[in-house]
Here is the input.
Amino acid sequence: MSWQEKTTHCCLRVVFLTIAPDSRSAAMGDVGVATKPDASSQFWNAAKYNFSESEGGVGISYSPWLKNLNIDDINLIYVSGYKKIDSRQTVSGAIRYFSLGDIQFRDEAGGEGITYNPHEYAINVGYGLKLSDNFSGSLSFKFIRSDLARDDNFKPGNAYAFDLGGYYQKDIQLQDKNAQMAFGLNLSNMGTKISYSESQEPDFIPTSLRVGGRFDVEMDEYNTLGFALDLNKLLVPTPPLTVDNDTGGVDIYGNGNNKISVVEGMVQSFYDAPGGFKEEMHEITYSVGAEYSYRNQFAVRTGYFYEHATKGNRKYMTFGVGIRLNVLGIDFSYLVPTYDSNSPLANTVRFTLNFYFDQYASTNTRF
Here is the structure.
């Protein structure tokens, strides 16, 4: 294997922040920055809430995690919601809890000690403002806590971050059919580094830039077809790559530096990869999804997620369905790896319940 083919990525903490939490987006290949707003939009782009056809809502999502490894007690729970203040302003919030299961510690004699549950969670609140008939922006603040061990030398880590979102939506005519296009951008997890001990160098959290678009067309009075595309890039340094050379020395490729500020790391992330511009492009993940809905009450979804082999090699198809019954929405998704059938992500499922606050909610409310 040449040095250009070796995996290089930054040491990150609290990667649970990158997991797609809700079933609808997960069923569409992890797209979400410009999809139609729903109760779970806080993770993808809180600016979408300003264009919601409902006055408010709450989404509850649950996903057993890494089930393909025969682990039964790792799971992700995500609760998010929003409420419109008026026609231009929206407040929102979310709680994300990631449980890593129970770990049995041993005492000094080798006997059974305490049982501990490592876990991580994030709490965030957001505000969205509609700046024009077609564009809105959002700002969200986030508290992150990671409690992974019970040790005198290993303390829980805390971090603070914010998300910045923008969303554009416009109705158009496609010949004689009603259609809608949308574009979104979300800068997420911009904030402090995190550390678990006084002697440890703090690590970056997964700051990322997500951009994408969506196009929906009403085929007729009852049937709607939509497509969405997301591109996502981590905005953290890529560490230099050291390779033994023929003279017995070491060659160093790349100029990434993990001991810099968060802002410097975001800027550096666009040019520091050992493989140059080509490797920078490898750091982008691609998500594409499609959704068919009937009378805005029943939906079928599918999608595909792609990550380069040297940056994680996650490649999978996703599928899902959704049902909307007035104020209640139920969604389900299923993941099928396309590269490795033994992937830890194989057979991942997600379940989501959405509740909408409209006193007289209409069955014509979109997904």
Q: What stands out?
A: DSSP finds four helices and 18 strands in the chain.
